[in-house]
């Protein structure tokens, strides 16, 4: 995942870390859940949070729980 100046010193969110760990591009995820790449970028770096509907799509895409994505548990 390419980082820009705004994100260079920040830690990615769980969504961002899943993208990195699974070698998935933001574009690939956006296409997979029918979403805009800007939204993916913002979620990956904590600029915004996904809606409940998007959170469910993300959990299904990554095969993890919504609680994991929200940081409520460390178990995927």
List the SSEs and their pairings.
Blueprint: H1 14-21, H2 26-33, H3 37-44, H4 52-62, H5 66-70
Helix pairs in contact: 1-3, 2-3
Task: Give a description of the structure.
The structure is a single chain. This protein has 76 residues and is mainly α. The chain has one domain (14-70): lambda repressor-like DNA-binding domains (434 Repressor (Amino-terminal Domain)), CATH 1.10.260.40. It is 53% helix and 0% strand. It is built from 5 helices and no strands. The radius of gyration is 11 Å and the shape is globular.
Amino- and carboxy-terminal Cα gap: 21 Å
CATH topology: 434 Repressor (Amino-terminal Domain)
Poorly predicted spans: none
Largest sheet: none
Name a few traits of the molecule:
mainly alpha, 434 Repressor (Amino-terminal Domain), about 80 residues
Short description:
The protein is mainly alpha-helical and 76 residues long.
């Amino acid at each position: 995942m390419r980082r820009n100046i705004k994100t260079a010193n920040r830690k990615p969110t769980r969504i961002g870390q899943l993208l990195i760990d699974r070698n998935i591009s933001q574009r690939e995820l956006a296409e997979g859940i029918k979403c805009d790449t800007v939204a993916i970028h913002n979620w990956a770096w904590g600029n915004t949070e996904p809606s409940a509907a998007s959170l469910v799509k993300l959990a299904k895409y990554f095969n993890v729980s919504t609680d994991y994505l929200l940081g409520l548990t460390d178990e995927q």
